[in-house]
Each structure stands twice: as C-alpha cells, then as structure tokens.
Amino acid sequence: MERRGLKKADIFAVVVLYRQTAQDSVAWRSLCRAAQACPETLGRFAVILYDNSPTGQPPADLPPYATYRMDETNSGLAGAYNAALDEAGLQGFEWLL
Fold first, then answer.
1. How far apart are alpha carbons 80 and 43 in whole angstroms?
2. Within 13 Å and on the Cβ side, how many CA atoms surround 95?
3. Under a CB-based contact definition with an 8 Å cutoff, are residues 31 and 23 in contact?
4. What is the block-wise mean pLDDT of the chain (97 residues), using blocks of 10 residues?
5. Which helix (DSSP H) or strand (DSSP E) does residue 95 occupy?
6. Which residues of 21-51 are buried (b: 16+ CB within 10 A; e: fewer)?
7. Cα separation of 28 and 32, whole Å?
8. Pair type for strands 66-70 and 95-96
9. Residue 45: CB partners within 8 Å, gap ≥ 6?
10. Is the dihedral of CA 27, 81, 69, 48 positive or negative?
11. Less packed terminus of the chain by CB within 10 Å, N or C?
C-alpha cells in the first residue's frame, strides 16, 4: 500500500564484507529484517554482498533479492561501491544504498 504522496522506492544496496560471513554482518541482517518486515513499502529491492576477503565465504541460502560477489584481490570499498553503482545502473535502480 502506498501512502498518499509517497511512492515505493527502488533500492539497490551494497554490503561489503571482509573476513566476515554475511550472517555475521549487522548491515546484512538489518536489510533482511527490513525486507521481511516491510515488503509493501519497497518497489524493487536488491542487495549485493561484495566480499573482499582473501577466501570468500558464499552464503548457503540467499533470498531472491540478493547476489554474492567475491573479489579476492580486495579492491577495497571503492571497488565494491563502483561495482554496485555499475550494477544498479544496469538494472535501472533509482537509489543506491
């Protein structure tokens, strides 16, 4: 349900991991809770888990709105943010978080 004057947001989020599993990430858990609690307020919603760890740890079960990318070269935050910006643009998202 849309509230008067507000439209649903198209949000593409990036969570950068380093030597941490997705399940240990406070940001990832928070985004999952928000997606489950308020699905009606989201338009399109996607999350990329960008893992800069030397050896990645892909999550066992990802929700349909999430993708995992491993970057063993550790291109840092800039690399992760730029990859997310490129992907969000390709998919036509309005917001990058």
1. 24
2. 12
3. no
4. 57 94 95 82 84 90 92 93 95 89
5. strand 95-96
6. bbeebebbeebbeebeeeeeeeeebbbbbbb
7. 6
8. unpaired
9. 10, 11, 12, 13, 35, 65
10. positive
11. N
If DSSP states are collapsed to H, E and C, what string results for 42-60?
Answer: EEEEEEEEEECCCCCCCCC
Give bridge partners of residue 66 from the DSSP assignment. Answer: 47
CA torsion 56-74-21-65 (nearest 10°) is -90
Give me the pLDDT at residue 69, please: 95
In whole angstroms, give the CA distance from residue 47 to residue 37. 16
Q: Give how far the C-alpha of residue 74 lies from the chain's centroid of Cα atoms, to the nearest Å.
A: 18
| Residue 55 in tokens | 């050896």
Across-strand partners of 17? 51
